[in-house]
Automatic annotation (TrEMBL):
Keywords: ATP-binding, Cytochrome c-type biogenesis, Membrane, Nucleotide-binding, Translocase, Transport. SMART domains: AAA. The gene is ccmA. It comes from Psychromonas aquatilis. It comes from the Bacteria. CDD domains: ABC_CcmA_heme_exporter (cd03231). NCBIfam families: ccmA, PRK13538.1. The keyword Membrane applies. Coiled coil: none annotated. Pfam families: ABC_tran (PF00005). This is Cytochrome c biogenesis heme-transporting ATPase CcmA. Gene3D superfamilies: P-loop containing nucleotide triphosphate hydrolases.
């Protein structure tokens, strides 16, 4: 279980959110919503330990993540705004590289996975030559190779068309049904069963509040 207690995030002396608490249990998909600039990415960076909260704590399996970083990262798949792909490598090479590095024990065919994400016929083209949506699909294909219970996905649907969104939604549902956990930000509706779905709405920044 992931537990956030009284998180406060400050950027450039501006409070983005204050006293934010929530939990995420196995089998849950948490949809983080809110207007541009409200602090969704900043929250995700706290959750993955890329920055530290001004106040508050984040617990993974009841341990503060700052004290169990190594084991936390073994349980975490984070897909942020940047694709993390190597542009000079092909889609296949990127996935093979990811698989060998992170999940050598997951037995999955990289060619089949690229077909699943709609990239049949584009497997051997350098990623730099693919469209924005196709590059995003290669990046998202890494989810199929992950055996991590916790997925944190920052706007994964950017540049993805409707059919691609459907494929990803199905994967999120399957992950949650297998007791996985998902935290996802997206500006669009998420079509997943109510039984798996939780929502966290970040409100407008507290413009008048300043922390020093
Ligand atoms: N490293 C940083 N230094 C200074 N300000 C930052 C930093 N990171 C984010 N901010 C500011 O914090 C605010 C929230 O940014 P963030 O990217 O978290 O918003 P968001 O909710 O993800 O927005 P969007 O929906 O547009 O992606 C913005 O005003 C941004 O300028």
């Amino acid at each position: 279980m992931l537990e956030c207690k009284n998180l406060t995030c400050v950027r450039e002396q501006r409070v983005l959110f204050d006293n934010l608490s929530f939990t995420l249990s196995p089998g849950e998909i948490l949809h983080v919503e809110g207007p541009n600039g409200v602090g969704k990415t900043s929250l995700f960076r706290l959750l993955v330990g890329l920055s530290s909260p001004y106040a508050g704590d984040i617990y993974w399996l009841q341990n503060n993540i700052s004290t169990v970083r190594e084991s936390y990262y073994q349980h975490l798949l984070y897909l942020g705004h940047k694709s993390g792909l190597k542009p000079e490598l092909t889609a296949i090479e990127n996935l093979q590289y990811f698989q060998s590095l992170h999940n050598p024990n997951v037995e999955l065919d990289v060619w089949e996975t690229l077909t699943l994400v709609g990239l049949a016929g584009y497997e051997t083209i350098p990623v730099a030559q693919l469209s924005a949506g196709q590059q995003r699909r290669v990046a998202l294909a890494r989810m199929w190779f992950s055996d991590c219970p916790l997925w944190i996905l920052d706007e994964p649907f950017t540049a993805i068309d409707k059919s691609g969104v459907k494929v990803i939604e199905n994967l999120l549902v399957k992950h949650a049904e297998n007791n996985g956990m998902v935290i996802i930000s997206t500006h669009q509706d998420l079509n997943v069963p109510d039984t798996l779905y939780k929502r966290l709405m970040l409100e407008k920044p507290i413009a008048e509040a300043f922390y020093v």
